[in-house]
TrEMBL record:
Stated name of the protein: YdeI/OmpD-associated family protein
Organism of origin: Chitinophaga alhagiae
Listed Pfam families: OmdA
Length: 81
């Protein structure tokens, strides 16, 4: 089930293929989709806007870890729904 991102006031970031592949590989796509639309968009923008490949990978790894553990969002406490 895809989230409706139409209410976001910030520009929407398209998901890069490498992010989708990582979410699928780590079986975290469902957890990603359970997050609020603004969090999904923030993660994608944050990862995509990194200039260096190693920074993109570091950010992707952080997102995957936070989704797996379920208690953080961008290194802040996240309690979920």
């Amino acid at each position: 089930m895809k989230k409706d991102l139409s209410s976001l006031k910030r520009p929407r970031h398209p998901m890069p293929e490498f992010v989708a592949e990582a979410l699928t590989k780590h079986k975290l796509f469902e957890r990603y989709e359970q997050r609020p639309a603004y969090q999904q968009n923030d993660y994608i923008g944050w990862i995509s806007n990194a200039k260096r490949e190693e920074t993109r990978q570091k950010r992707l790894d952080q997102m995957l870890k936070e989704l797996k553990e379920g208690n953080k969002y961008m290194n802040m406490v996240y309690k979920g729904d």
